[in-house]
UniProtKB/TrEMBL annotation:
It holds the Pfam family YiaAB. The chain crosses the membrane at residues 12-38, 44-64. InterPro entries: YiaA-like (IPR038972), YiaAB (IPR008024). Keywords: Membrane, Transmembrane, Transmembrane helix. Residues 14-66 form the YiaAB two helix domain. The lineage of its organism: Bacteria, Bacillati, Actinomycetota, Actinomycetes, Mycobacteriales. This is YiaAB two helix domain-containing protein. It comes from the Bacteria.
Amino acid sequence: MSTSGATTKSTNAFLAQAAIAFGISFSATIIGIIYLPLDIWQRGFLLMTGLFLVSSTFTLAKVVRDQHESSKVNSRIDEARMEKLMADHDPFKMPG
């Protein structure tokens, strides 16, 4: 009843795609804000909200990842306890 220690890992291509997509979308947002026909304070407001959106997105992703990893650890601890109980149990042992 042992479980394999295989973990899912993203490929380098997926990591590169995610990084490139983030770079393009962030750059396009900044360039769009710069070229909007607005006053400087309006551009500054849009820039600040864009940066806040990016930072809160990273924070949310980290929290979701941490919760998922925590649930995996708890599940592994429960599995290890059950395996130990099953290994220690001897159905042919006489009580007393």
